[in-house]
Amino acid sequence: CHVFLKKLPCAFKELAIKNVRRCHASQGMFAGYWGPIFRSRCLFTLRGSRQGVSHDAGVTVSTSESVGQNDLLIVGPGVLGRIVAEKWRQEHPDCKIYGQTATTDHHSELTKIGIIPSLKGPRVDQKVPYVIFCAPPYRTDDYPGDLRVAASNWSGEGSFLFTSSTAVYDCNDNGFCGEDSPCVPIGMSPRTDVLLKAENVVLEAGGCALRLAGLYKKDQGPHVFWLSKGTVDARPDLIISMIHYEDAASLGIAIMKRRLRGRVFVGCDNQPLSRQEIMDRVNRSGKFDGKFEGFTGTDGPLGKRMDNSKTRAEIGWEPKYPSFTEFLGLSN
Ligand SMILES: NC(=O)c1ccc[n+]([C@@H]2O[C@H](COP(=O)([O-])OP(=O)(O)OC[C@H]3O[C@@H](n4cnc5c(N)ncnc54)[C@H](OP(=O)(O)O)[C@@H]3O)[C@@H](O)[C@H]2O)c1
After folding, report:
1. Quick one: which of 70, 76, 138, 318 has the fewest CB in 10 Å?
2. Torsion sign (Cα): 127, 128, 129, 135
3. Over the range 281-290, which residues count as b (16 or more CB within 10 Å of their CB) and which as e?
4. Nearest Cα to Cα of residue 252 among 117, 99, 84
5. CA 194 to centroid of ligand 1, rounded, Å
6. To test the ligand 1 pocket, which listed residue (98, 109, 139) has its Cβ within 8 A of the most ligand atoms?
7. What's an example of a GO molecular-function annotation for this chain (predicted)?
8. Does a structural domain hold residue 227?
9. Which residue lies with its CA nearest to atom 48 of ligand 1?
10. Are residues 19 and 119 in the same domain?
11. pLDDT means per 10 residues in the chain (332 residues)?
């Protein structure tokens, strides 16, 4: 550390000395012990000091533009993207995580959690070895074009992953669907067209697509929306496949770590439920304010029962929340 300090330009020396002191102090009972954990933390802080750092809410963000082998670009660091960032940082504490957004509205929030924000677009500096695109399709006129730009920011090392949707599967009779089930043909629905065209951009660039079922967490998902309405004019027997946000993030990361090329995977919990079953469980759990009264619809298309056994076997992944029921603390 002291040799390092001597080499530092004056302007950074004071900051670095403070960091070293804080580093020593924060080791508590380990102060003076130059074990591997302490040493790596100390050097990381110093390296950050040489490159310029911002300390916000305890998170150290390096602003250097040199590319690290585990640096990650998250296009669309919203709910899922931020969970991915948190998990990725746990595995790669010294990586840089960039976040590209549609607006500057959340840039200060992102900086606080250690994500270096910018608006979406081509990176004028270096490409990044890991890119995950997890922005939804409804805030852009050219979703496939946005994926093309994201692909141009990928160095071709690591992984490029696009979080697509199981909506692309051509099934609306509550039937079973797996990774290889047929997709809605192009030209049949603008909603699925946009997703499939975006997937094609990704696959052609050597990236992978992860088709996610309905995402939920306690305060987000269809159950929250229906609960806020009380009564909903929709048929109760439509089957919905789901996956918890945390599990979608852990699966995305597991896929990225495999560095596969041009592959399609599915993310779901393999325990699909009807709308009615979802809301019965919400009422029964006692974990929510208010009571859901019911669904009043009688017609319209049904849903699908997604199964991702193939993805699980290949990636070696299992969800933390095996079902919405167990997530609520109820027995299955
Ligand atoms: N929700 C579901 O049930 C579901 C189901 C299947 C698949 N998915 C997919 O899962 C992914 C994650 O969903 P989520 O709920 O975490 O999304 P989210 O929270 O709505 O994502 C919002 C983030 O995306 C940014 N953004 C929006 N459009 C963008 C664009 N065209 N380019 C760059 N950034 C853009 C927003 O920027 P600002 O900060 O400027 O707002 C914000 O950072 C998405 O790809 C979604 O399509 C979701």
Report:
1. 138
2. negative
3. bbeeeeeeee
4. 84
5. 14
6. 139
7. isomerase activity
8. no
9. 215
10. no
11. 36 36 32 26 28 37 72 98 98 97 98 98 90 98 98 98 98 98 97 98 98 98 98 98 98 98 98 98 96 97 98 98 98 80
